[in-house]
TrEMBL record:
Lineage: superkingdom: Bacteria
Protein name, per record: Polyisoprenoid-binding protein YceI
InterPro entries: Lipid/polyisoprenoid-bd_YceI, TTHA0802/YceI-like_sf
Secretion signal, residue range per the UniProt entry: none
Family: Belongs to the UPF0312 family.
Residue span(s) of domain Lipid/polyisoprenoid-binding YceI-like: 5-182
Length: 190
């Protein structure tokens, strides 16, 4: 079958994080400016290559003051570290449509190994519009990946205390990445 090259479709790809706030609720944030690619050979998963970049300057939680605080040096320090990256290649099939994908996640210039629990959502041939013309069909595939990280591992350590020894922000943060990828046409002569 051979390897295939897929590019993330940024308009339909995003990342979300969830952190406990004030010990009683959860705050969710999202990133819509996510770009990346996957090169995969289903017969040789050990040759898989995944690269993704998130524009951390565009964090959105629905609260402008909180978004500004998240962009500051207290949290993401986007002035010095505007992007996050994930580079991976270790893929293990754990079910018919379930995989564990291990790679290096970089936040604030700190790189740590992370394992994403990925569910493959399937493929479909769809229209492909450019400049008002349907150039399709193009094949799309969907994936959702989930993991939990300790934000302190990446230098995201701001916090404050609340009553009875509680904290404003939890150490553990749940991360979900939804990817819609488009199969790239083979390049002539490659």
């Amino acid at each position: 079958m051979g390897a295939s090259h897929w590019e993330f479709e940024p308009g339909h790809t995003g990342a979300e994080f969830t952190a406990r706030h004030m010990m009683v609720a959860y705050v969710r944030g999202q990133f819509k400016d996510v770009h990346g690619s996957v090169v995969v050979d289903p017969d040789h998963l050990d040759r898989t290559r995944i690269e993704a970049t998130i524009d951390a300057t565009k964090v959105y939680t629905g609260e402008p003051a909180r978004d500004a605080h998240l962009r500051s040096a207290d949290f993401f320090d986007v002035e010095n570290h505007p992007t996050w990256t994930f580079v991976g290649g270790t893929v293990e099939r754990i079910g018919a449509s379930a995989f564990e994908v291990t790679g290096d996640l970089t936040i604030r210039g700190v790189t740590r190994p992370v394992t994403l629990h990925v569910t493959y959502l399937g493929q479909w041939d769809t229209p492909w519009w450019e400049e008002g013309r349907d150039l399709g069909p193009r094949r799309r595939a969907g994936f959702v990946g989930r993991t939990s990280i300790n934000r302190h591992d990446f230098g995201v350590s701001w916090n404050d205390s609340v009553d009875r020894g509680g904290v404003v922000v939890s150490d553990l943060v749940d991360v979900t990445v939804d990817v819609e990828a488009v199969l790239q046409p083979e390049l002539a002569g490659v």
